[in-house]
Sequence to fold (240 residues):
Amino acid sequence: MAYEDLAAFYDELMGDALYHAWQKALAPHLSSVRVAVDLGCGTGRMAAWLAERAERVYAVDRSPEMLAVAFDTWGHLANVHWLESDLGDLALPEAADFALASTDVLNYILTRDELERVLQRVRACVRPGGKWALDTLGPRRIQQLHNGAWHDVRDHLVIVHETEVEGERIVHRVCGFFGIDEEGALYRRFDEEHVQRYWDAATLAELLDRTGWEVVEVQGDFGESPVDQADRVVWVLKRR
Fold:
């Protein structure tokens, strides 16, 4: 299962750069947002940031481990409502003005039928005219993930990553060791496998159009790269 153990170290491994890029990109879109939803909220950092700019935020994730980390850190925020749900079953008690799905959330949806259902469910939870910002893995990242391997070594944590790409399918295996005593003499091993799918821009644009979403803007790496050379493709959509 993905994120059963990695959730505890996710923020430490992610760092701040991507969150800051998202916050800079989103700021112009949030002036009139009353209700926001963070889809695949993970450890809750973006949900907490949205909570400073909206009256209510719904933070949704299918991983109970991620939600547990998020609630431990941000559970004191009274205007954030935490929901464990698959996006294909998404339901909110009120329509959102703005939705966010950052950091590869849609890449964890593996089939066209599943993705179409998610796009329809998100549309049902956003008011007409509301916006949705999301990102997907870009062409440059897929090239890097072909037979990729890298590691991250820290005093209390060692992570070894291995990736395989076959067609549109991406398998990311994680082998980690984390310290379980103060002396640093004992470590516990964990293994996770994350399966994702690469969605090319043309396929995603066609599915968005079919499910009632207007593409307002598409950028590579927050405007730093052409889309066909991007590590990350950033989309801003409007619900028709």
Notes: The longest helix spans residues 112-124.
